[in-house]
Write a structure and sequence with these properties.
This protein has about 90 residues and is an alpha+beta fold. Helix content is about 25%, strand content about 35%. It contains two helices and five strands, in the order βααββββ. It has a five-stranded mixed beta sheet with strand order 1-5-4-3-2.
Length: about 90
């Protein structure tokens, strides 16, 4: 049996996601859904911050920045943005 994580959005990340064109939302949605099964997936890069377990994954020209909360089996989406504005 595989462990499944729950996905939650920070309100600002959800607002940014909702403003994207449908084609981009669909593309990013597939990546976000894949985080439920394995948040430490290939291609995920750890971001060095004061907060632990913050990663980013690429999806085309967009980046998804998220925090993994293993104790609660939660993936918190912190930011969804074009690569030029993601950091």
């Amino acid at each position: 049996m595989s462990v499944r994580y729950s996905i939650f959005f920070k309100p600002s990340a959800k607002k940014a996601f909702d403003k994207l064109p449908n084609e981009i939302k669909s593309q990013l949605g597939v990546k976000i859904e894949s985080l439920k099964i394995y948040p430490y997936q290939k291609g995920a890069r750890k971001i060095i911050t004061t907060t632990k377990n913050v990663f980013r994954i690429r999806s085309g020209k967009y980046r998804i920045i998220y925090q993994i909360q293993d104790g609660e089996l939660v993936v918190l989406i912190l930011r969804v943005a074009h690569r030029s504005k993601a950091y």
